[in-house]
């Protein structure tokens, strides 16, 4: 009996996970930092961590990290978002593109100077145009010399 219940639960979990593998819609319940939010999917009791794909925000203990988190929280906290799920990362977070009222949240962050566009093997990242606009206008973290989070983590480790 227990084995049958376990198999049923695993099958249901597989179906639920498969359904969430493409997209999810829910309410933002918490903002951890400038590139991680918690979304409670419609009909669910608990929230899931979502890492915004295609960008990298300053670490929370890094210069401009708190400002990036606070700007993101002011913009999306308690709002309904759509997440186009792409993967899961090593921290077990869902990774994906997030839209608020149809607008790409990653583009919003980068163009305002709260994050870098992720660069892949010398290729410009998905928000390279928005990053160039923010740099040119010296918005946000571009108002003063900025160290990208990857270099910061390499030198100082994570804030945890």
Automatic annotation (TrEMBL):
Residues 22-144 form the TNase-like domain. The keyword Zinc-finger does not apply. It comes from the Bacteria. The keyword 4Fe-4S does not apply. Residues 136-160 are annotated as: Disordered. This is Thermonuclease family protein. The lineage of its organism: Bacteria, Pseudomonadati, Pseudomonadota, Betaproteobacteria, Burkholderiales. It comes from Caenimonas aquaedulcis. InterPro entries: SNase_OB-fold_sf, Staphylococal_nuclease_OB-fold. Keywords: Endonuclease, Hydrolase, Nuclease, Signal. Gene3D superfamilies: 2.40.50.90. Residues 1-21 form the signal peptide. One of its GO terms (molecular function) is hydrolase activity.
């Amino acid at each position: 009996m227990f084995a049958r219940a376990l198999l049923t639960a695993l099958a249901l979990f597989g179906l639920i996970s498969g359904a969430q593998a493409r997209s999810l819609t829910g309410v933002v319940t918490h903002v951890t930092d400038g590139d991680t939010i918690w979304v409670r999917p419609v009909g669910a009791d608990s929230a899931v961590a979502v890492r915004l794909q295609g960008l990298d925000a300053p670490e929370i203990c890094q210069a401009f990290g708190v400002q990036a988190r606070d700007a993101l929280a002011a913009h999306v906290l308690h709002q309904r978002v759509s997440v186009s799920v792409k993967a899961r990362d090593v921290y077990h977070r869902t990774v994906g593109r997030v839209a608020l009222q149809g607008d790409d949240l990653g583009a919003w962050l980068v163009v305002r100077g709260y994050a870098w566009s992720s660069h892949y093997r010398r290729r410009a990242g998905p928000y390279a145009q928005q990053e160039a606009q923010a740099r040119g206008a010296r918005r946000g973290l571009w108002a003063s010399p900025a160290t990208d989070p990857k270099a910061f983590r390499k030198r100082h480790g994570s804030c945890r």
